Amino acid sequence: MAGRIEEKYAYLFVDFPPLGEITDKTRSENYARTFTGGVRINSGMYRTSKEEEEEYREKSLQRQLP
Asked: What is the CB neighbour count within 10 angstroms for residue 21?
C-alpha cells in the first residue's frame, strides 16, 4: 500500500517539462486541435514571447476606455 501512495505522490509533485517556444507553425497546429475549456487557446489567442507580451501591453495602454 505504501508503494502506491509514493507512486501517486510522485505523479502529483513532478515538475513540468520545459516548454518550447510557440511559433506560427505550432499555433496553426494547435488551432486544428480542440482544447476543452480554453476559448482563447482554441482561437489561437495567446502570447508566448516577451516581445509579444510587451507589444500587447503597449497597445492595451494606448486603447481608449469606453
From this structure: 7
35 near 41, Cβ under 8 Å? Answer: yes
Q: Is 31 helix (H, G, I), strand (E, B) or coil?
A: helix
Q: Give the predicted TM-score (pTM) of the model.
A: 0.40
Instruction: For residues 23 and 21, give the distance between their C-alpha atoms in angstroms, rounded to a whole number.
Output: 6
Please give the Cα distance from 65 to 36 (Å, whole number).
32
pLDDT in tens, the chain (66 residues): 556 777 777 778 888 888 777 788 877 887 777 766 677 777 777 767 788 888 889 999 999 988
